[in-house]
Design goal:
Blueprint: E1 5-11, E2 16-21, E3 28-35, E4 43-48, E5 51-56, H1 62-75, E6 85-92, E7 103-104, H2 107-115, H3 124-137, E8 143-147, H4 157-160, H5 166-172, H6 181-195, E9 203-209, E10 213-219, E11 222-226, H7 248-256, H8 261-270, H9 273-278, H10 283-291, H11 295-319, E12 324-328, H12 329-334, H13 336-342, H14 355-359, E13 366-367, E14 376-379, H15 384-396
Parallel strand pairs: 1-6, 6-8, 9-12, 12-14
Antiparallel strand pairs: 1-2, 2-3, 3-4, 4-5, 7-8, 9-10, 10-11, 13-14
Helix pairs in contact: 1-3, 10-11
């Protein structure tokens, strides 16, 4: 008998990432990436076990992309109709004030997610296209939306409130929502397991550092602050996003550079961050350029680390001390220089990184602080797909 499985779908504007996995064991039966949807040179790469197949072909829309993915399942020996799929879990970026727990998708829920697109115009419409595509192809399977913002729904008022006119804020839903919540929740839970302590006993700071980057402060398992805000643009320096900046810069650019709203949006979301400062947003290339003497690359890296330390200091004070600092996601898990530089010179706060442990080649959750250190510094791989799959099972009650 085949194990119960959940299909997890992360639909972007022109791509679809997916995994078919067992929510109990976490074993992945197959995974893939559909890219460049709507372009002439669309592509798919699909992996099942030891076998990987790929194809370059025009993919007109998300339904066609998922249809192609389903064909790859069959090509690699897995019949989705007999695969024991009990639910489809979808990553949805913005739940606003409405959705703060995983939610079974029906027509009403889909309409509300659509209405919330004003808060995440780059993300929610793409998430919706993925949901609609799966509904077409797997109409009998329950679908569950898991929201990036849900974990931070209960932030304290002082942390979630922006200092603007209260009526304007309430009318337009302006507050700090936070993002990467699925990752922060999963990783902070794994930290408690790794340390053998109940989550309620820990003060934690979690750095989720990928192309998008965020940091959270947790007290007793509950988030009390996070760096991303109304949108995923606020906070840390990211691959292509600016993170924090004086809002007066926007007004200045509109007046002097004659940028319209779309121009500002492109600049801050796609043409800023590491790419804007150094011309690249891949950390491997950034490191190569630094080592070759590129001053722009060095400056971009220094700004990136400065912002990490800025938030670390703020959250140390906000928490009144910390038990564990954890790095996760692509950069956080794989870049020892970032980890070491972000925590350099903090011995008086009980924070240190052991150079040998930090540079060890290990893909598992691990401690990189010296033996006996007051603060545990950890690297914990995130697994948002597994978290989404388990959330989908919890909602549907099917396992």
């Amino acid at each position: 008998m085949e194990p119960a499985r959940v299909l997890v779908v992360n639909s972007g504007s022109s791509s679809i990432k997916y995994q078919l996995l067992d929510p109990d064991s976490g074993k992945v039966a197959a995974s893939g990436l559909v890219e460049r949807i709507g372009e002439d040179d669309g592509a798919i790469e699909h992996t099942a076990g030891e076998r990987t197949v790929s194809e370059q072909v025009h993919i007109p829309d998300h339904t066609a992309g998922l249809r192609l993915a389903f064909a790859k399942f069959a090509e690699t020996g897995l019949d989705l109709a007999a695969a024991g799929i009990t639910a489809v879990g979808h990553r949805v970026v913005h739940g606003g004030e409405v959705f703060y727990r995983p939610t079974l998708v029906d027509d009403r829920v889909l309409r509300t997610i659509t209405e919330l697109s004003a808060l995440a115009p780059l993300h929610n419409p793409a998430n919706i296209r993925g949901i609609e595509a799966v509904r077409t192809l797997l109409p009998e399977v329950a679908q569950v939306a898991v929201f990036d913002t849900a974990f931070f729904h209960g932030l304290p008022d002082a942390a979630k409130t922006y200092a603007i006119d209260r009526q304007v804020a309430e009318t337009h839903g302006i507050r700090r929502y936070g993002f990467h919540g699925t990752s922060h929740e999963y990783v902070s839970g794994r930290v408690a397991e790794f340390l053998g302590r109940p989550p309620g006993s820990l003060k934690q700071i979690v750095f989720h550092l990928g192309n998008g980057a965020s940091v959270s402060a947790l007290d007793g398992g509950r988030p009390v602050d996070t760096s991303m805000g109304l949108t995923p643009l606020e906070g840390l320096v990211m691959g292509t996003r600016s993170g924090d900046l004086d809002p007066g810069i926007i007004l200045h650019l509109m007046r002097t550079a004659h940028l319209d709203i779309n121009g500002v949006d492109r600049l801050l979301n796609r043409g800023s961050g590491l790419r804007g400062m150094a011309g690249v947003n891949d950390f491997r290339e950034l490191r190569r350029r630094i080592d070759s003497g590129d001053t722009a690359a060095r400056s971009a890296y220094d700004v990136y680390v400065h912002r990490l330390r800025h938030y670390l200091g703020a959250y140390l004070i906000e928490l009144g001390g910390v038990d564990a600092i954890t790095f996760t996601a692509g950069v956080g898990e794989n870049n020892p220089d970032v980890r070491a530089d972000a925590l350099a010179g903090l011995h008086r706060f009980g924070i240190a990184v052991d150079p040998e442990l930090n540079t060890a080649k290990d893909r598992n959750a691990r401690r990189i602080s010296p033996v006996g250190a007051e603060v545990q510094v950890l690297v914990v791989p995130t697994n948002e797909e597994l978290a989404i799959a388990r959330a989908a099972v919890a909602v549907t009650g099917k396992n």
